[in-house]
Design goal:
The protein is mainly α and 262 residues long. Helices cover 76% and strands 0% of the residues. The chain has helices at 3-24, 27-46, 48-54, 61-93, 96-100, 109-135, 145-172, 176-182, 185-191, 207-211, 215-227, 234-257. Helix 4 runs antiparallel to helix 8 and helix 11 (215-227) packs across helix 12. The longest helix is centred in the first third of the chain and has 33 residues, at 61-93.
Amino acid sequence: MSSLSLAVRDASTMLRRNLLHARRYPSMTLNLLLTPIMLLLLFVYVFGDVMSAGIGGGADRSAYLAYVVPGILLMTIGGTVVGTAVSVSNDMTEGIIARFRTMAIHRGSVLIGHVVGSVLQSILSVVLVGAVAVAVGFRSTDATVLEWLAAFGLLVLFAVALTWIAVGMGLVSPNAEAASNNALPLIILPLISSAFVPVDAMPGWFQPIAEYQPFTPAIETLRGLLLGSEIGDNGWIAIVWCLGLTVLGYFWSASLFKRDPK
């Protein structure tokens, strides 16, 4: 077999391993999945009328539901990859990596298995949260097939970018608890983005914090694709953020993985 075939085979084996772990220990995935669902229901049914009126849409809960769903979907990805950081940290601290290094397997297959498994879990989580959003009334009737495909591509690209960053956070953490804490910004950043209110409705001193971060342009791009709102420069900015984070996360993770296991 060629080296590429061996790498693909080993990565597939590690992917199956990670998916089996996720199936056997679903508690973390479920806990992280419940957070965006609870926020969706809370902001729509408890704060929906007030929030909609506050952003100039009138007291219309359905209008605010349409506004908030894109942000919730991207928040779902940020929450899901926290589990990846914890899983990677467990592998590095429990000795399994040291054992893998004594075996004739492709060194990068371990990280690739984590990344691919995490992206699949993220997309599945997005589908489940999206189904809840549709169940409570979200509709995207103006989006074309091409826009739906572009939205799906953006979600996948964003999931890949955040997953590589989460892998690096897991590798640099001394234990699972530290990995969970290190990955906490991936949950906090959506809360201080344009997910729940427009950036121009925030205090002036706070607007740069919300604007110059990866979640806001990605949310505005997804919102434009699904709802037909103006995307402007957010499309290419979101792509640059995704590609930049992917490259940064990959090289960071690769350099950390070369160290001796803890």
